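seq as requested:
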Amino acid sequence: MFPWALLVLMVVAGLPILLYRYGYEASMRKQRRDINAQFDSLEHVDGENARGSYYGNSAVIVYEFDDEPRIGNRRAYRRLTIHRVFRNTHGEYFLFISGVPPYVTHLSRERAMNALRENKLAFHREFGDESTT
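struct tokens:
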């Protein structure tokens, strides 16, 4: 086989893989930007209890993990879901799950501790030496 033919064969065979990988990464970056904008625009004002109010742009993200779409052991072109435990300015905890519409719910201190248990660094940063049992 001629050297140029081998080169053409390698390019033709590898091009779809490169395009898929670039497309997937670009899709994930765009989805992440959209989710960050969605989170920053969150706003809930509780007139009866100010501790239940939150603003996404001033919230402290305590813990975050991605639910990256996969089919078997391969990444898939599907919607990225991000889960965030965040704290408002009054020290109350909330859970945010991205989506349309996003899901946001209040977490008691105990539930927030349970959510952070798997990440020892985040748990220690947030709750210090409190019991982990």
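The CA atoms of residues 15 and 21 lie 10 Å apart.
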